[in-house]
TrEMBL record:
UniProt xrefs under Gene3D superfamilies: predicted glycosyltransferase like domains, Spore Coat Polysaccharide Biosynthesis Protein SpsA, Chain A
Top-level EC class: transferase
Keyword Transcription regulation: no
UniProt protein name: Cellulose synthase catalytic subunit [UDP-forming]
GO molecular function terms listed in the Swiss-Prot or TrEMBL record: cellulose synthase (UDP-forming) activity; cyclic-di-GMP binding
Purpose: Catalytic subunit of cellulose synthase. It polymerizes uridine 5'-diphosphate glucose to cellulose.
PANTHER family, sorted: CELLULOSE SYNTHASE CATALYTIC SUBUNIT A [UDP-FORMING]
Transmembrane portions of the chain: 20-42, 48-65, 72-90, 105-127, 397-415, 421-446, 467-485, 510-530, 542-564
PilZ domain residues: 569-664
EC annotation from Swiss-Prot or TrEMBL: 2.4.1.12
Organism: Variovorax gossypii
Length: 722
């Protein structure tokens, strides 16, 4: 490297200090004044009129602030939200818990605990997401001879070869020196067809004689028999792009203490919520907030979690922490925690460089979340980040928030049933008038939603988290409680991928909790309407308040029921919407320029420039392009209608399969173009969408009840006729 030229000897003329520095003392004094008066503002008792005036003033200030761009405006919104929510929480604790009735007291304490939990999670969420780092890739050395050696692990247990083969073939196409990249398929299923496939394509098939510690044990066993300086890990359905290594590896050369670089998990297939609610591509899914914002926010505090796939780890540091953690079923996050405790760093690059399959069924999705929740509760019990050595305060808060998140089961159930205490029994869980509850609670809710909408807008729409949590609440509550009591209970379960759903059906088993809650809330509405006919005039507002809360809960639960109506998934290979230039070649020598509109490993959908009718099974060739390189694939016509054509690929050689992967899923531009591109949607449109979906849920529920009743009556009628 050439040394930088020396500076000139003469000193430049002094320049006036920037305006921001001249104003710095004023800003410091301003913040001191604000922080000094803040406690008084939070705890000051006020009449209803005073509280309304204060709330309206602060909310108008928030609306004006929200019109400005930039992170400073976001920080102001966070500050205002914290002030309003702190005032509400202080009021709830000090002025609404004077109850003589033991039943009221017990139910009231339960609701207060749920609200305190939500308040803590809100504050910790602001810490995590206030200032995403937005780390950019770092270039590698110009000479590839200086690049490190990498062992690429693809763990698999019971997944089919059709799911794994695209990942293996894509891994072979990664832009990295061939002598510095070794690919290992870690087959804990010990299957002969996998061994044969690995031999044919030229990768190493690794097995062991036991399945101890599941995925973590599988990786640890492979670490003992490999030697690469770094280890890249991909779930067997996560197909890497060609640029993955060059994007991920640069930071390792800059920071010798960097133990892990994590990239997003992007899914090209719809998860059960997206498929059953028909929201794929239009509503951010459950994981986008984590990979789009939270991990990026964690990166600011050196608290990025390892997520088990789409990551690269430095071997020496992994070995120093004892390998992949085996004490919990969330081995990935626990491994990152161990790295951070020893003073090592982790990094996150919010650039999707791989894509995989989402879970097919809602029951499988629930099972996956149960494992995550159990594992986080286990870490909370046996290696609590609040205690122990090695972490700074921000890392502790980021880890604690991740673990507290999975304790939402009981608080969510409380929120879904709290108004029923009054509607059923007349129990006052909040000892205050409806007007005072309105004056304190509404500003807290509005500010939290306004602030989170600004921060999370591209990655999570308002109210959708309540639908996700309501579906999972009952199933998450039980394993987390058990793990907190005895962290050794429970086992690792593999998330099924690549399965089929032969027929549309209503998953009454998963929907059972939502149906019970929905029935309880429906009875509550009936009782509330009955109370309106005789309740004292001074309590009418309280009845209406609880009725509104219950109707809102019914809307959320209706959407939960709709999510349990499983849609069919008959394709053996998932189709992905994709527009690429292509050329269609016919047997008579003609060719036609066209574009794809979707693709899969089994075929292509083609958009023609003009109407054309082709007979089924007509042989054609379809050419796809990567830069200026053309790759041709033999195919037959599956359907032909108007300007659209469906093609089925003929059997391919491994070289052709690699070429197809290279032209489609292994291209870096496909997933990056779709990442974080959801438009911000106003609350009224989100609310209307959820109401519509909730109506569908009620229809599904009654339809299922009608079919079930008809099925029970059919044998009885047949018996009567005989």
């Amino acid at each position: 490297m050439k040394s930088a030229p020396s500076a000139p000897l003469q000193q430049p003329a002094p320049r006036p200090a920037p305006a921001i520095l001249r104003l710095l003392p004023v800003r410091i004094l301003g913040w001191i004044a604000v922080l000094a008066t803040l406690p008084a503002l939070i705890i000051a008792p006020m009449s209803f009129e005073q509280q309304i005036a204060l709330s309206v003033g602060i909310f108008l200030a928030a609306l004006v602030t929200n019109r400005f761009r930039g992170r400073f405006a976001s920080l102001v919104l966070i500050f205002l939200s914290v002030v309003v929510s702190s005032r509400y929480t202080y009021w709830r604790v000090t002025e609404t818990m004077y109850m003589d009735n033991p039943v009221d007291l017990v139910l009231g304490v339960g609701l207060l605990m749920a609200e305190l939990y939500a308040f803590v999670v809100l504050l910790l969420g602001y810490v995590q997401t206030a200032w995403p780092l937005e780390r950019k890739p770092v270039p590698l050395p110009d000479d590839p001879a200086e690049w490190p050696t990498v062992d690429l692990f693809i763990p698999t247990y019971n997944e089919s070869l059709s799911v794994v083969r695209s990942t293996v073939l894509a891994a072979q196409l990664i832009d990295w020196p061939r002598d510095k990249l070794k690919i290992f398929v870690l087959d804990d299923g010990r299957r002969e067809e996998f061994r044969v496939f690995c031999e044919e394509v030229g990768v190493t098939h690794v097995t062991r004689d036991n399945n101890r510690h599941a995925k973590a044990g599988n990786i640890n066993a492979a670490l003992k028999h490999t030697t690469g300086e770094f280890v890249a890990i991909f779930d067997c359905d996560h197909i890497p792009t060609r640029s993955f290594m060059q994007i991920a590896m640069g930071w390792f050369g800059r920071d010798p203490k960097l133990g892990m670089v994590q990239l997003p998990h992007y899914f090209f297939s719809a998860d059960p919520f997206e498929r059953n609610l028909d929201t794929f591509g239009t509503v951010p899914n459950e994981g986008e907030l984590f990979y789009g914002l939270i991990q990026d926010g964690n990166d600011l505090w050196n608290a990025t979690f390892f997520c088990g796939s789409c990551a690269v780890l430095r071997r020496t540091i992994v070995e120093e922490v004892g390998g992949i953690a085996v004490e919990t079923v969330t081995e990935d996050a626990h491994t990152a925690l161990k790295m951070h405790r020893l003073g090592y760093t982790t990094a996150y690059l919010a650039l999707p460089q791989a894509a995989g399959l989402a879970t097919e069924s809602l029951s499988g999705h629930v099972g996956q979340r149960i494992r995550w929740a159990r594992g986080m509760a286990q870490i909370f019990r046996i290696d609590n980040p609040l205690f122990g050595r090695g972490l700074h305060w921000a890392q502790r808060l980021c880890y604690v928030n991740a673990m507290l998140h999975f304790l939402y089961g009981l608080p969510r159930l409380i929120y879904l049933t709290a108004p029923l205490a009054y509607l059923y029994f007349g129990a006052s869980v909040i000892h205050a008038s409806a007007s005072m509850i309105f004056a304190f609670a509404l500003p807290h809710i509005l500010h939290a939603n306004l602030t989170n909408s600004r921060i999370q807008g591209r990655f999570r729409y308002l109210l959708w988290n309540e639908v996700y949590e309501a579906v999972l609440a009952w199933y998450i509550f039980r394993p987390t409680l058990v793990a907190l009591i005895n962290p050794k209970l429970g086992s690792f379960n593999v998330t099924a991928k690549g399965g089929l759903i032969q027929e549309e059906y209503f998953d009454s088993s998963i929907a059972k909790a939502s149906l019970v809650l929905l029935a309880l809330n429906f009875v509550g509405v009936c009782l509330g309407l009955w109370r309106l006919s005789w309740v004292d005039p001074q309590n009418i507002a309280t009845v209406w308040l609880n009725l509104a809360w219950t109707v809102y809960n019914m809307m959320i639960l209706g959407a939960c029921v709709a999510a349990a109506n499983e849609s069919r998934q008959l394709r053996s290979s998932h189709r992905v919407e994709l527009s690429l230039p292509a050329t269609l070649y016919f047997a008579d020598g003609r060719s036609l320029r066209c574009n794809t509109f979707d693709f899969s490993s089994g075929g292509l959908g083609v958009e023609l420039p003009q109407d054309m009718k082709l007979d089924p099974e007509t042989p054609v060739d379809i050419a796809l392009y990567r830069n200026d390189l053309e790759s041709r694939f033999a195919a037959t016509v599956r359907f032909s209608g108007g300007k659209r054509l469906g093609l089925r690929f003929a059997p391919m050689s491994f070289a052709q399969e690699r070429a197809l992967v290279q032209c489609t899923t292994a291209r870096a531009d496909i997933w990056a173009a779709r990442w974080g591109n959801h438009p911000r949607v106003p609350i009224h449109r989100v609310l209307g969408h959820i109401i519509s979906i909730s109506g569908t849920g009620f229809r599904d529920m009654f339809s299922h009840y009608y079919r079930a009743t008809a099925a029970r009556l059919r044998p009885a009628k047949a018996k009567e006729s005989t």
